[in-house]
Design brief:
The protein has helices at residues 2-24, 47-55, 88-91, 97-102, 108-113, 115-134, 138-148, 158-183, 191-217, 228-236; strands spanning 33-36, 74-77. By secondary structure, it is mostly helical. Strands 1-2 form a two-stranded antiparallel sheet.
């Protein structure tokens, strides 16, 4: 009975986290603005047509006047790629603790096959996971703080806010395999398939976290994640 209550509470927290992400996640649009200068076309009988005729010395009668075309110009304005300075390098890494903790259990098979990684996980990650799981809605609270509390935070650089939004997006992606895993917990699945699925999710989110943290420590903006970085740019805003 206690196991059933614990499972239902855990699934309920994931469902609430998914609902919050759907409510607060802005629809993705590419963070580029396109300004198009319309093509100006002059008719044959337009007054300026005769000016063109005089300029090109084309005075023959019953001949088609060739009007120069105005080129269509497209200007792409993207968000700036400024570097991280000083303490912002460390601050930008902190938000990635949330997806690191939420997806830790996907690495259980990897930790079994690679004991050094398992030892590091037991020393540094599992204690934090235990604290996070002891409060059912703590993960949801941290999610809302990172998603909403950093959008218009004064005194916080844009790069730090960008990393907070990107960490939130990585955490959102983890919700779907987590719900699937919780639903199949009591189903007898061959180990080879369960290990393949868990390892795939672990490699995905761990690669995204390691890339982002490494780029931040180097002072570079981690905006190279497909789809996620573009969505994080838009959610952060232009300033």
């Amino acid at each position: 009975m206690a196991r059933l209550v614990s499972k239902s509470r855990r699934v309920g927290s994931y469902v609430l986290l998914l609902a919050a992400s759907i409510a607060f996640f802005s629809p993705f649009v590419t963070p580029f603005q396109v300004s198009v200068r319309p093509v100006k076309v002059l008719g044959v009988h337009h007054p300026k047509t005769y000016q063109y005729k005089s300029k090109i010395n084309y005075v023959r009668k019953n001949k088609e006047v060739r009007i120069p075309h105005t080129q269509r110009k497209t200007h792409l304005f993207s968000w700036s790629n400024e570097e991280l300075q000083g303490s912002d390098r460390i601050k930008a890494c902190i938000p990635y603790v949330l997806p690191l903790l939420d997806g830790d259990f996907f690495g259980k098979y990897i930790y079994q096959r690679v004991p050094p990684l398992g030892t590091l996980d037991q020393l540094f990650v599992e204690p934090l996971v235990s604290i996070l799981q002891s409060f059912p809605f703590l993960s949801l609270i941290l999610f809302c703080l990172l998603s909403l509390g950093t959008r218009n935070a004064q005194g916080m650089s844009r790069n730090v806010r960008f990393n907070a939004q990107q960490a939130v997006l990585i955490d959102i992606v983890l919700i779907f395999p987590t719900i699937v895993m919780e639903g199949l917990r009591d189903v007898d699945i061959p180990r080879v398939w369960a290990e393949f699925g868990c390892n795939f999710v672990w490699y995905f989110y761990m690669s995204a976290i390691v890339y982002s943290v490494a780029m931040n420590l180097r002072g570079k903006k981690p905006n190279g994640l497909p789809i996620l970085s573009d969505a994080a740019e838009f959610m952060t805003g232009p300033f």
